[in-house]
Design a protein that fits this description.
Radius of gyration: 18 Å
Number of strands: 12
Helix content: 25-40%
InterPro entries: Peptidase_U32, RNA/ubiquinone_mod_enzymes, UbiV
GO biological process, one term: ubiquinone biosynthetic process
Distance between the termini: 26 Å
Structural class: alpha/beta
Protein name: Putative Peptidase U32
CATH topology: TIM Barrel
Strand order of the largest sheet: 1-2-3-4-5-6-7-11
Pfam family, one: Peptidase_U32
Length: 298
C-alpha cells in the first residue's frame, strides 16, 4: 500500500506558524513527515533541538519522522549542523547532498533525496549499497524513465515520488529574494519571511513564470499527480510526497488520502484543488512532456 509523505517546509515561516502547522499535521492522515531547513541556514526560527522536539510529538501521533539536510552546503557552520543532524540519534535522515551521504554511508540507513540526481538503476544500486533505504525520484523524471529502474530495484529499497507542490527547479549560491530588494545575501534582513509561498515572477505578458524562494527557484505552477495514482501504483511507487504550502495543505493531504482509499474520484479531487489555488497545475514531467503542461483535467 502506498504511503503519504509531507516534505520539509521550503519557505521561511514564523516560529509560531511552523509549530501550529505541525500540530495540525500530527492530526492529519500523512504517514511520513520530513522536517528541517533545506534551503538556507540563515533561516533560524526553529533550531535543531526545536525540530527534534517537533519530531517527538509527531512520533507520538504515529508518524514516521525524517530529518532533511540542507541542499547546498557552503560554510563550516553548515557542516556542523549537518553533522549534528546525522548524529541526532532519533530519526532517519534524508541526505540532500553527497556530503551528507558520506557521513551516513555504512553507518545509518537513510533516504536518498531528489537533489542527488538519481536517474538510472546503477545509481540506485550504488546508494543502496551505501545504506539508502528509500530514494526520491528527481522531479523531472517521467514514468517511462522510472519503470526500468523499478524492475531492478534492490531488495529493501523504496521509491518516493513528488506528487504535489511547486517544483524545486534549481539552487544558486546567490539569494534571489535578497537581490530583488537590493540587499546582499549576508544582510538579507530575512525578506523571505515576507513571502510565505515564495516571490512570484511574471513575464512581460503577465503570465506566471517562476517563484523565487531565497536561493531556490521553483515552478510557478503546482505540480499535481492526483490523476496518476493508478499509474504510480502500477509502477510500484511506495511513497507519495506532498510539499507544504502556507494554506490548504491539510485539505490537499485529505484529498490524496481519499483518492488513495477510493472514496473520492481523482476528477472530483482536482476540481476541489483548483479552488484552492490560482496558480494552475501541471503534470508534464511525469508524462515525459514539457514540465508546465497539464494532461489530466477536471
Amino acid at each position: 500500500m502506498m504511503k503519504l509523505a509531507l516534505g520539509p517546509v521550503l519557505y521561511y515561516w514564523p516560529r509560531d506558524t511552523l509549530l501550529n502547522f505541525y500540530d495540525d499535521m500530527a492530526a492529519s492522515s500523512v504517514d511520513i513527515v520530513y522536517l528541517g531547513e533545506t534551503v538556507c541556514s540563515r533561516r533560524h526560527n526553529l533550531r535543531l533541538q526545536d525540530w527534534l522536539n517537533v519530531g517527538d510529538k509527531l512520533i507520538d501521533a504515529g508518524k514516521q519522522v525524517v530529518m532533511s539536510t540542507q541542499v547546498l552546503i557552503e560554510s563550516e557552520s553548515e557542516l556542523k549542523t549537518l553533522r549534528n543532524i546525522v548524529d541526532n540519534g532519533r530519526f532517519m535522515v534524508e541526505a540532500n547532498d553527497m556530503g551528507a551521504v558520506r557521513l551516513l554511508a555504512g553507518k545509518l540507513p537513510f533516504v536518498a533525496g531528489a537533489h542527488l540526481n538519481i536517474f538510472n538503476t546503477r545509481t540506485v544500486q550504488f546508494f543502496a549499497s551505501m545504506g539508502a533505504r528509500r530514494w526520491v525520484m528527481a522531479q523531472e523524471m517521467s514514468r517511462e524513465m522510472l519503470e526500468p529502474i523499478q524492475q531492478q530495484m534492490p531488495a529493501g529499497m523504496e521509491t518516493e515520488v513528488f506528487v504535489y507542490g511547486r517544483l524545486p527547479l534549481a539552487y544558486s549560491a546567490r539569494c534571489f529574494t535578497a537581490r530583488a530588494h537590493n540587499l546582499p545575501k549576508d544582510d538579507c534582513r530575512f525578506r523571505c519571511e515576507d513571502y510565505p509561498d515564495g516571490l512570484a515572477m511574471h513575464t512581460r505578458d503577465d503570465d506566471a513564470f517562476l517563484v523565487l524562494n531565497g536561493i531556490q527557484t521553483q515552478s510557478a505552477r503546482i505540480y499535481n499527480l492526483i490523476g496518476e495514482l493508478d499509474s504510480l501504483r502500477s509502477a510500484g511507487v511506495n511513497v507519495l510526497r506532498i510539499s507544504p504550502q502556507i494554506e490548504h495543505s491539510g485539505e490537499v493531504i485529505q484529498l490524496f488520502r481519499d483518492c488513495m482509499d477510493q472514496t473520492c474520484a481523482p476528477h472530483s479531487a482536482l476540481q476541489q484543488m483548483e479552488k484552492l489555488t490560482t496558480d494552475g497545475h501541471c503534470d508534464g514531467y511525469w508524462q515525459g512532456r514539457a514540465g508546465l503542461e497539464q494532461s489530466f483535467i477536471s
